[in-house]
Structure of alpha-L-fucosidase:
Amino acid sequence: MPMFVCSSFHIRKDELYVILILCLTALSVKSENIKKTPKQGPYLPNWDSIDSRPLPGWYDQAKFGIFMHWGVYSVPAFGTEWFWHKWKADKNPRFVEFMKENYPPNFQYPDFGSQFTAEMFDANHFADVIQASGAQYVVLTSKHHEGFTNYASNFSWNWNSVDIGPNRDLVGEMAEAVRSRTDIKFGLYYSLFEWFHPLYLKDAANNFSTQDYMKMVMKPQLHEIVNKYKPHLIWSDGDWMCPDTYWESTDFLAWLFNESPVKDYVVVNDRWGQGDSCHHGGYYTCTDRYNPGVLQKHKWENAMTIDKTSWGYRRDTKYSDFLTMDEITQTLAETISCGGNMLMNFGPTHDGRIIPIFEERLRQIGAWLKVNGEGIYASHPWTSQNDTFTPGVWYTTKNTSVYAIVLDWPENNTLNLGVPVTSETTTVHMLGVSTALQWSKGTQSGVSMTIQFPVLAGPQLPCDYAWVLKMDNVN
């Protein structure tokens, strides 16, 4: 504790408090700087430097995550999470008519805020379901393009989940539940822009020569969520309307990687400004539901949705709008084989529930991964991504083993493969089946090996879709 000797001059009590605060702050800053010395870097606020930062290893090993789009758009729950924009900006007839038929003439979108109640939300249940999915990370919306924050933002007065609606810190509750009950990494989605924020509209009208919205809302909120919730991942979005110089993205990322409390482990995506996607940042997302089907040179992610058309929950869905497990496992196989991660999205209801079909899909993919995760988690792309003879066979590798993800059970239990080069010591196992499978060298043109699938009754099958073969001593 520093001592102040004041024998030769007089210091007022209020001045002494100021001196003490300044000294303690200086000591704290010095201590924090010592603790937060970056392992690499320092990184400069330009893309050459930012892009040189190695991607923290946990992300590539994780392979599979869960996305949650949740906000005021979950109240009308109609059409899309872009409901407000479709209704007011696009004046889409379908959305305009929906409002005329169901709400009073003077009803405005912010009136939905008080109806975003989340009274059924149990963060522990959400964490348990996400853990059951086999996900290694989860990304929750802290703010979507509507500007409503799922926490008490100091820069979104009366348009956040603590001031109105739930009157709860939804981000904080979810972060606590995930971290206390699971080993899943907690991440946050954040929209850089807001459709109808007056400061953003003013900057847009000035062709983004002014930066009032960025300085007074966006950048403070990004610092807010990093310092308060310490996410492992920041999923940036809403960047495409203007260049990254307006957003001062490289300045923020330099702070994030050099000085922030998450600097050593945080992962970011590529949506930091007009033209940056698929070129700069951390891992690449390129487009929504990005699934190139071929090996990529840079780490990437397929952010996709169980509901084929919407990211948020909507009441106008039909059963056919939801992906089947065959479609989900196919997407996962294609994504992981080509070097990507899959981030699978669902949308909770306005009152805080996971509807049964979403929970079913999460638990189904978790059951599949419990059997077949060996060929997914911490795997790498093999020399070939898919088979040259039989369609619907995708490869991964880990250690010295090669894994073939077979999307369709072969006719007559006989699978012909064109890629693996066998030897006398080659062995083949189906994950979830104890006995080795019989195989032989291929006799047809283009077939390198033929594998006999086991004859199993329904309950004996290790899973109901996409079977994974583990092959050792193949090239």
